[in-house]
């Protein structure tokens, strides 16, 4: 039996309400990368969404105040990396402000279109940016898949209740 929501005590819309609700939503963890004038940039994202199969297209959100935004706003191509549950520290590094995201122990190489491609991920894609749609203090980036590799092994990394976690059987 499911509990009936308490409609007598709803909260007004606010950033805190949205954050509280989405802490309860388990999301896969990805790292988005892009070439930048000062070197590669990247960030951890839980907003990755498949948009279209024909043509193959995806979307992700990025805050306009993020350190990666200037490079992503100018990039013609981005890398999308699906992280495995063995990559909690990598996810934390790319989520941490001011971190040296591409220094050791991060293992990566320059990929097609100059996009940084991370090693040992479950899957990766290189995508051509087709639009950046304003959405409040963020932009929704729409990108068409150019190529990729789904052959990594392991289980996906998840983000839930404010922490990185793994699937349970």
Automatic annotation (TrEMBL):
GO terms for molecular function: oxidoreductase activity. Residues 22-166 form the Flavin reductase like domain. Its EC number is 1.5.1.-. Keywords: Oxidoreductase. It holds the Pfam family Flavin_Reduct. It is an enzyme of class 1 (oxidoreductase). This is Flavin reductase family protein. It comes from Streptomyces galilaeus.
């Amino acid at each position: 039996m499911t509990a009936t929501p308490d409609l007598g005590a709803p909260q007004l819309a606010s950033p805190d309400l949205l954050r509280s609700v989405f802490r309860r939503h388990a999301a896969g963890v990805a790292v988005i990368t892009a070439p930048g004038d000062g070197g590669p940039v990247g960030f951890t994202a839980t907003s990755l969404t498949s948009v279209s199969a024909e043509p193959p297209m995806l979307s992700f959100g990025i805050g306009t105040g993020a350190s990666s935004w200037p490079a992503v706003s100018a990039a013609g191509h981005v890398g999308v990396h699906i992280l495995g549950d063995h990559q909690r520290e990598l996810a934390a590094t790319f989520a941490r402000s001011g971190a040296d995201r591409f220094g050791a122990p991060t293992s990566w190489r320059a990929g097609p279109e100059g996009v940084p491609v991370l090693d040992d991920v479950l899957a990766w894609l290189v995508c051509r940016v087709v639009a950046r749609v304003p959405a409040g203090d963020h932009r929704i980036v729409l990108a068409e898949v150019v190529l990729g590799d789904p052959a990594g092994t392991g289980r996906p990394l998840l983000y839930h209740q404010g922490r990185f976690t793994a699937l349970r059987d």
